[in-house]
Design brief:
The complex is a heterodimer of chains A (108) and B (422). Chain A has two helices and five strands, in the order E-E-H-E-H-E-E. Chain A has one domain: Ubiquitin-like (UB roll) (Roll). With 108 residues, chain A is an alpha+beta fold. Chain B has 422 residues and is of the alpha/beta class. Chain B folds into three domains: 182 residues, FAD/NAD(P)-binding domain, CATH 3.50.50.60; 126 residues, FAD/NAD(P)-binding domain; 71 residues, FAD/NAD-linked reductase, C-terminal dimerisation domain (Enolase-like, domain 1), CATH 3.30.390. Chain B is built from ten helices and 26 strands. The two termini of chain B are 36 Å apart. Classes of the chains: A alpha+beta (108), B alpha/beta (422). Chain B: InterPro entries: FAD-oxidoreductase/Apoptosis (IPR050446), FAD/NAD-bd_sf (IPR036188), FAD/NAD-binding_dom (IPR023753), FAD/NAD-linked_Rdtase_dimer_sf (IPR016156), Reductase_C (IPR028202).
Chain lengths: 108, 422
């Protein structure tokens, strides 16, 4: 089963398996992973599921849509041009069987 | 008064009535802020607490969509939050500080948070109890509506509010004929400027929705207990085997009324979200609070309002409330097919509306001014404007109305350029 590895800024790590088609945001909410809020329910409307995707996974992600691009400009923790994504737009599947992300210190 | 003493705040016993966005966020925020005392969340629906916004959007599109939980089961276990689902509160006994549940249990509290939400307003016309006449608020409602859409030949929506128009867009996506009747002269009347409402009206009409303004229904017609249509206020006969009624909500304030708390279009709270009983707070859809931006009492129905008020109350319970009171900028969103509408701030009907961008592109914002002050921004498919607006409204900054006439003006650039240094 695909998995997401969440790295927190206190050094702790959560490793969570989840079926294809699940977004990183949803994986976090369903599995009590701290630091991801997902207030809008995955509609790229709130920018509270911001994550920094680690090197090695970036080329397997979907393109950043216009909406996501604009919302990424407004995250609580500052955007990293290379690594920042909204967790609701990063979806596990055959092209992304594993992804490793850093969870920012704040979302709101 | 709750909290009794700051030193005891972390272990104070808290009961939260309502397990929607507001209730669950209160519980989470309490634990995040260091509360370790007994914490119970009571919800009357059987399911694990879930996100409501998708129910009127993608949940209707995908046949086997599962509800998106607000938090997984393990969150409640790990955080030692006692979650009581499928149980109603029958009474709040303020004299003994206890909440009585429908299963016979009694929960003692030091602090009580009312996050009771709202209930859909029903349409008091003959036939509204026919099979096939739906409303949409809960997961059970959404599953029933989705099942009904599968075999539907034509749909009628009563009320062009957010729920009605989101449903209309989902029904059109399936190719269903959809008629929407709205009593007012424009859709989304309470929330939107005339400029934005007009654009949204045209967009739904181009999408094939038969949107009739200034129209209502006087009765639903049925055969053998199933709806087959409706009679309009002007005598028009509508044919429909699925009716969605979306005519607003009423705050669930019955427990507060019964407990003798002040109620007036919702449970009356002060700027700290405290009711007329200092041990009891009310938040979210059920609470009427003095809004620091408008100077009036408001009751807002949105995820943002629910979760921001929850965080405020959690801090208050722990004796760390913001002395300035609750003052978050309200924001809201709605997806209706290709329309992504975002609203920041609160407008009133006599505010001046200035359009930013070209509505013909399908991407523009309406900035509402009271005098020289920006009070609200509605954005259609322009999320950057929305985020900039939230920031400007929070900081109390306004571009001069004349600046908006410059074709190169950008809210985002303005918000950034003048940002105060932290």
């Amino acid at each position: 089963m695909p998995k997401v590895i969440f790295h927190h800024d206190n050094g702790e790590t959560d490793v969570v398996e989840s079926p294809d088609g699940t977004s990183v945001m949803k994986v976090a909410l369903q599995n009590a992973v701290a630091g991801i809020v997902g207030e809008c329910g995955g509609q790229a409307m709130c920018a509270t599921c911001h994550v920094y995707v680690r090197d090695g996974y970036l080329d397997r992600l979907p393109e950043i849509s216009e909406d996501e691009e604009e919302m990424l400009e407004c995250t609580a923790a500052s955007r990293d041009e290379t690594h920042s994504r909204l967790g609701c737009q990063v979806v596990l599947g055959p092209d992304l069987e594993e992804v490793e992300v850093d969870v920012p210190g704040s979302q709101i | 008064m709750c909290p009794a003493h700051k030193s005891e705040a972390a272990t104070t016993s808290v009961v939260v009535i309502g397990a929607g966005h507001a209730g669950v966020q209160t519980a989470e925020a309490l634990r995040t802020m260091g509360h370790t005392g007994p914490l119970t969340l009571v919800g009357d629906e059987p399911a694990l607490p879930y996100q409501r916004p998708p129910l009127s959007k993608e949940h209707l599109d995908i046949a086997d969509a599962e509800p998106l939980p607000l938090r997984g089961t393990q969150f409640f276990t790990e955080q030692q939050i006692q979650l009581c689902t499928g149980v109603t509160v029958t009474m709040i006994d303020r004299s003994s500080s206890r909440v009585h549940l429908s299963d016979g249990r009694e929960l003692p509290y030091d602090c009580l948070v009312l996050a009771c939400g709202a209930a859909n307003r029903s349409l008091p016309v003959p036939g509204s109890d026919l099979d096939g006449v739906h409303s949409l608020r809960t997961l059970a409602d959404a599953e029933a509506v989705r099942a009904a859409m599968a075999g539907c030949e034509s749909a009628l929506v009563v009320g062009a509010g957010f729920i009605g128009l989101e449903f209309a867009a989902a029904a059109r996506k399936r190719g269903l004929p959809v008629t929407v009747v709205e009593a007012a002269e424009r859709p989304l009347g309470r929330a939107l400027s005339a400029e934005m409402a007009e654009h949204i009206t045209e967009a739904h009409r181009s999408n094939g929705v038969d949107l009739r303004l200034g129209a209502g229904v006087t009765a639903f017609l049925g055969d053998n207990g199933r709806v087959r249509g409706a009679i309009g206020t002007d005598g028009t006969e509508y044919t429909a085997d699925l009716v969605l009624v979306g005519v607003g909500v009423v705050p669930r304030d019955e427990l507060a009324v019964q407990a003798g708390l002040a109620v007036d279009n919702g449970i009356v709270v002060d700027e700290h979200l405290r009711t007329s009983d200092p041990d009891i707070y009310a938040i979210g859809d059920c609470a009427s609070f003095p809004h620091l931006f408008t100077g009036t009492r408001v009751r807002l129905e949105s995820v943002q309002n629910a979760t921001d008020q929850a965080r405020h109350v959690a801090a208050a319970v722990l004796g760390r409330e913001d002395p300035g009171g609750y003052r978050e900028v309200p924001w809201f969103w709605s997806h209706q097919g290709q329309l992504k509408l975002q609203i920041a701030g609160l407008r009133s009907s006599d505010d001046r509306a200035l359009v930013l961008g070209d509505p013909a592109d399908g991407k523009f914002s309406v900035c509402s001014y009271r005098g020289q002050r920006l009070v609200a921004v509605e954005s259609l498919n322009r999320p950057a404007d929305h985020m900039a607006a939230r920031r400007l409204l929070a900081e109390g900054r306004s571009p001069a109305p004349e600046q908006l006439a410059d074709p190169d003006f950008s809210l985002k650039t303005f918000a950034r350029a003048l940002a105060p240094t932290p």
